[in-house]
Amino acid sequence: MLNDPRSHGLWENTAPEPPTTSPLDGAMSADVVIVGGGYTGLSSALHLAEAGSKVVLLEAKEIGFGGAGRNVGLINAGMWVMPNDLPGVLGPVHGERLLDLLGNAPKLVMELIDKHQIACELERNGTLHCAVGADGLKEIEARAAQWAARGAAVRLLDAAETAKRIGSDGYTGSLLDKRAGTLQPLAYARGLAHAAVKAGVAIHTSSPVIATERNGSRWMVKTAKGEVSAEWIIVATDAYSTGPWEQVRSEQVHLPYFNFATVPLGHNLRQSILPGREGAWDTKEILSSFRMDQAGRLVFGSVGALRNTGLAVHKGWAKRALKRLFPVIGNVEFECEWYGQIGMTDNALPRFHKFAPGVVGFSGYNGRGIAPGTVFGRTLADHILGRLPEADLPLPLTSPTEPSFRALKEIWYEAGAQVAHFADARL
């Protein structure tokens, strides 16, 4: 169990149980050892095992302990970078590959949920990127046009249609992305774990990796009480990385993000607030997100950490903001509260690293882990299986580099969010 009520909140309370696992104890041999039990690691494990590979997955804490168990639950397509800008950042070859891969990534998530009958409150009605003011409207107009030019199932909605779908007149328009949706994020991670175990993956939790050693053509991956010998290592630890691959965490700036879940709303409120169950977020620099779970709880979040003075500041702001956005909701009570850390790279794009021969990983999802993590996991499996050469990967090979003033930026983001939320009732 994830025993910190402010780390996983509603998701821990409502997710089905994970598969039964235990710490690694003794020596094992595998084709591939995967380090990290989030979306990337579990997707890699599942796809490799289904192709006949012997896989061992090592997780330092519990399945979904990191970003996979703390996020909002939006199954987004693409990244924050505008579609037309992405080839300019990565080059035309990798840029177009990444756009194609991530544009279709929500489809893979939904296919896996259907195939393995994962109970994770999947909603397929899309997401709404909500415009705040004239500048926000210009942003989503550009994004809509660029995705539409690539054949994506997106549509620009005016203020009236947006108000009808959201239940609030606070926005000047929205971008409806029908490729996307929402789910219960920890339940999805645990469902992938069940599917991986069924396919033959050996999962060991409470098994942080403390060292690795090259032994001929194989790697020895060591924990406190055991070791795994394998030809390949997949590093799938991302923003919560510690130990031998802590440089993955060090190349990302942690951006704290919190969520509050209301008590289940009454029938009339459920019919007026997000009646189509789309997930939503806005265009503000310090953005807000909101969505419903299947029990009718409104999950509302923004940038900030629920610790020290941040807990009172952000909770007070959230109550004011919800009442202003949805006046009919009244003085709402929160049932759960939690927060996590988003790993932000300096160009807001993910990375592909080869840490050593046979040691590979994707990281840096910038707050969009569900669909990218799932599809990058499959990509790593295809690479190891020989189906996808390194030259054909969707990202170029790069080395981890720490951004300038990382620690100061993290302090600023946490403190700045408190200042903004103390002063601002939003919209």
Please describe what this structure looks like.
The chain is an alpha/beta fold and about 425 residues long. The chain has a domain of about 250 residues: FAD/NAD(P)-binding domain, CATH 3.50.50.60. It contains 13 helices and 20 strands. Strands 6-7-5-15-16-17-14-18 form an eight-stranded mixed beta sheet. A six-stranded mixed beta sheet has the order 9-3-2-13-20-19, with helices on one face. It has a four-stranded mixed beta sheet with strand order 1-12-11-10, with no helix packed on it. The model has no long low-confidence stretch (mean pLDDT about 95).
Task: Compute the CA-based radius of gyration.
Answer: 21 Å
- Order of strands across the biggest sheet? 6-7-5-15-16-17-14-18
How would you name the CATH homologous superfamily of one domain? FAD/NAD(P)-binding domain
SS content category:
alpha/beta
Pfam families: DAO
Protein name: Glycine/D-amino acid oxidase-like deaminating enzyme
InterPro entries: FAD-dep_OxRdtase, FAD/NAD-bd_sf
Organism: Rhizobium laguerreae
